[in-house]
Amino acid sequence: MIRRIVLCVALFVVAPIAMAEKTVLRVGHFPNITHAQGVIGHGLTRQGNGWFEERLGPDVEVKWFVYNAGPSAMEAIFAKSVDLTYVGPNPAINAHLKSRGDEIRIVAGACSGGAALVVQPDGRIKTDTDFKGKKIASPQFGNTQDVAARAWLQSKGLKITMTGGDALVIPTANPDQLTLFQKGDLDAVWTVEPWVSRLELEAKGKLYLDEKTLWPDGKYVTTHLVSSVRFLKERPQLLKKWIAAHVELTEWINKNPDEAKKLLNDEIKAETTRALPQVTLESAWKRLELTYDPVRASLLKSAEDAQRFGFIKEKPDLSRIYELKMLNEALREKGLTEIK
Prior knowledge:
47% of the residues lie in helices and 18% in strands.
């Protein structure tokens, strides 16, 4: 009888612990070098020694979701399918405005740089004036590089409209850009790594302009870490832990580039079935800066340009798009400089 009582007590004590459910944190990213923290984090989760899991604690499970376009990632936020995602600036702006500022917040930066204008190697474009009458591809209608291309062409005195003007900006998926460029059907392409390097190495394209030359100190945002407002309000401490781990991972990548590049490429292969050629990876890596700084000024300028070209109907109110308090708290605790 005593043995049965002891056994029942043991089961009563152990059972609640065994039945405790983990908190599931759902995070999105693209299988791209400009989303390196997400890609590497996903890869380490897949290997069973997750970077983020170790810092979030044993009661948290991270589930990763892979997207190929910013709008898809933002729709996942709206649908409550993900809590956090790595995404480019223009999709973040569009989602913020679409939800009247109620659904998303930029909580950290992830990547700066990596975009460039590549022209045909046959000399058809030698100077800025040569772009008149030419076809310039961008990755997606109204995306970050599309807006940047239109703004730059306009700054050179060309009339650029949504569908034409003195030069034609043609939204074209990156793989198709490469094919059409190789055929000579495109005169130039404004895109982002690793496609800039692929155009150079595989299609013999010539770098005409590195976008960093257009920005103060060569810094402009390529990728952000974005949170849903719901997650931010409901689980602020968990979000802060993620941001702190994101900062640590960014620092680790910059201090260990060779190991980071291998982890990145292994995971890109796992997600897409094809790793980047090493020469492409090395070339692309040199044009990027992985950073937790969201480079706020460049996003505001991009929003102004998007409005000027009609992608945003009214002057955008972005007064609530940033929530950097947790980032700065994490930076202070690590003895790093806060973001203004």
